[in-house]
Amino acid sequence: MFTAKEVADYYNTTQNHYRKWWKLEKNLSLHYGIWEKGINSFEESLINTNRVLMKLDAISENDKVLDAGCGVGGAALFIAENKKASVTGITLSSKQVELARQSAERKKITDKVKFFLMDYTSTSFDDESFDVVWACESVSSVTDKTLFIKEAFRVLKKGGRLILSDFFQTAENQPDKHEWVKKWGATWGISNFDTKKDFVLKLNQQGFSSVKSFNYTDKIKKSARRMYFASLLGAIPSELYNLTHPNVSAFAKTHYKCGYYQYRALQNGLWKYYVIWAGK
What we know:
Elements: H1 4-21, H2 24-27, H3 42-57, E1 64-68, H4 74-83, E2 86-91, H5 94-107, E3 113-117, E4 130-136, H6 145-155, E5 156-169, H7 180-188, H8 196-205, E6 209-215, H9 221-244, H10 250-254, H11 258-267, E7 271-279
Parallel strand pairs: 1-2, 1-4, 2-3, 4-5
Antiparallel strand pairs: 5-7, 6-7
């Protein structure tokens, strides 16, 4: 099971990989891109993921948004620029906070967006501080998803909304003879994946209501396939680098394999990609 420190280490030690393969400074995204009609490039698909979540949650200028697991700040900046909402982004990664703050300063919107080094399962915010909790592919990183759900419920105002997208195991105890899901998680700092059914149950148990889920699996397949080919292309250079740099971190050493594992797991129907909305 990965600790919060180990998850932070994963993002800190692999950020240079995302700089190359995700064009991080330009796209400010570490998530899957959602491909829909009119989306013609990977860059557009990444932006579209933010657009899909923002539209489903109907975020407005009057909302105070907590981006829980904000990465390098792309979604928070997108919301602030497009909806003029006030956004607070939190992440475990010091490198992500640094890049996010630099981007906010460059875009001259520091009055609308703030970034902090903080664990989304135990924040310092007052009860009922936010209208929206946003979590794009971040909840899967915590071993006990209930800890995130409890904290999200606590910091949301009455009538507030939780909007998230993430990977969910298709079924409990599903056959996986090659252990594609387990291997994928090991290279991405993820201890375990909930099923969508179990996650929704946890939301209801903690007080959320009117839970809605939207299956976007087919619309992220191009992104998953892109990661797969990137993994194949990066295999030889990565192994050569590992040979010449024996002290490289464990995550950095195996990170290129994640693209292969996630795609093989997807091909075998072992996981799905959902956007989930819940009200308080």
